Amino acid sequence: MHGGSVERGFQMTRLKVSGMTCEGCANAVRGAIARLASAAAVVVDLERGEVAISDDVDPAAAAAAIEAAGFGVARRGPAARP
Questions:
Q1: What is the pTM of this model?
Q2: Residues 64-79: pLDDT tens digits?
Q3: Residue 27 lies inside a defined structural domain of this protein
Q4: Residue 79 falls within a domain, yes or no?
Q5: In this structure, what CATH number is given to the domain that contains residue 32?
Q6: Cα–Cα nearest to 57, from 38, 74, 43, 71
């Protein structure tokens, strides 16, 4: 995954993001989440087309922000990080 480190045991929520094809797209998604919560952990996986966000970000708000940035979103559920 690209996009930063996540602390061990940190609870994440995964969102399936369509239309994300390059690092520029990944940066746009990261920026959309950062505008919601600047300290949020965001991990983008371009190969899987997924974004994992820390549990301090409302998933519905994150999905709306990502959609406003021009991408499609489907919630995948919790993703515990080892």
A1: 0.76
A2: 999 999 999 986 655 5
A3: yes
A4: no
A5: 3.30.70.100
A6: 38
